[in-house]
Amino acid sequence: MHDSTSTQLSLIRQLKFCAGHRLYRHESKCAFFHGHNYRVDIEVVAAGGGSEVDSVGRIVDFSLIKQRMLAWLDAHWDHAFLIFEEDANALAAIRMVEPTKYFVMPSNPTAENMARYLLEVVAPGVLGDLGVVARKVAVWETDESCAVATLTGDAGGLGLALASAVLIDDRYDR
Ligand SMILES: [Zn+2]
Asked: Ligand 1 centre and the CA of 136: distance in Å?
C-alpha cells in the first residue's frame, strides 16, 4: 500500500472593496440596485506547485499579491457597479449617471461569478509573472456568505478545469 505524504504550501491574502450590483432576473430583492462591502480571499501556490520557496523562504511576498490584486480591484470594481452584459436596462440606467463607474460582466455579478472571474481572468493576468498561480478565490458578499472558485487538478498546470461551489449561501434570506 502506498503510504507517503507531501507538503503543499500556499498563501492566502485578504482584499477588500466596495461595489454595487444587482442580479439580473433574480426573483426577489437582489434584483434591486444595492451594494456590498466585499472581501476576497485569494490563495496562491508556486507555479511549480509543492513546497517550492525562494531563497528567503517565501512562495512570493504577500505585499506583491496585495499590490497587484488591489490595483486591479481599485481600478475596476471598487466603488463601481457590476452589471451583467445582458442587463440592458441596468446598463442604460448606469450610463445616465454623471459621473459613473461601472464594470460590464460576462455573467451575472453573483459572488460565484465574481470569484470565477477573479480566478480565471484577473489573477492569471496580474500574477502570472510572479511565478505563482491562484488556486482558489473566495468572494465574501456578507460576513456569513461567500462563494468559492477553485482550480482543480495540477495547480501548476494551465487550462485547468474549474469548479465553483457555494460554501455558505444565505444571501436570499437576508
Ligand atoms: Zn448583492
From this structure: 21
